[in-house]
Specification:
single chain, 255 residues, mainly beta, outer membrane lipoprotein receptor (LolB), chain A, 14-stranded mixed beta sheet, 3 helices
Length: 255
Amino acid sequence: MKSLLFFFSMIVISGCTSTKEAHRHAADLSPRQIIEAVNSHARAITTFQAKGSISVESPSLISSGSFDVWLKKPDSVRVDVKGPFGIRIASALFAQDHYIFYNSFKNEVMEGDFNKGDMPSFMDIQINPKDIVDTFCGARGFFREEVLPDSFSLGDGSYILQFDHDEGTTRYTIDDITLYVTGIEHMDSVGTVWSEERFDFGRRDDGTIIPQSIRLIHDRLESSVSLVYETVHLNLPISEMGFRIPSDARRVTKK
């Protein structure tokens, strides 16, 4: 998630209503059932297309723009970020552990492979492609190794599942009606929250639940990226994910 926040910071620089029902009791669903239900939401999405607005806030920057995103499961995401008057600022494609990033202002292109540790300068940790795909479509799921939580409780209308890892703890908050993840907290080994993911959803007339906004917060850097979706299309055909790069674009490498 941290890597996504750095990515958005870099490129921005250069009527659904939710319904609420009576809450379930914690005993209604077991942790295994909750995990399976949450993961099923992600599996139900094959393609995702959306438009919206993006804003970045940090101690040194407050900026905003618009974006278009195309997503194809299992691992391909393309993002175009635009500034005033619809001028493209940058485009990025993440696919099969490979990335291509084009900065149209500088006419520069950068690419590399995640598995080789070849990361662009604005991403300083390993990216998990599943993390990127699920974050954009608002259907964050559990990782394969997250089978049973180390802690399970019921909050204010939410299930809370906590998993302890070697490097710290991940705490998931899941709405107890929709069974979508509404929040994720990443904590270090002493329990201090260093980053967060927050998701808001709406419900269409046909009952389809779609993301309305996503906020990625890096507490340690006092910075955040917010995505507000204006239009969302699920499971429609996407024929092409690539984008054109001018032949005279200068190729740059990680510094």
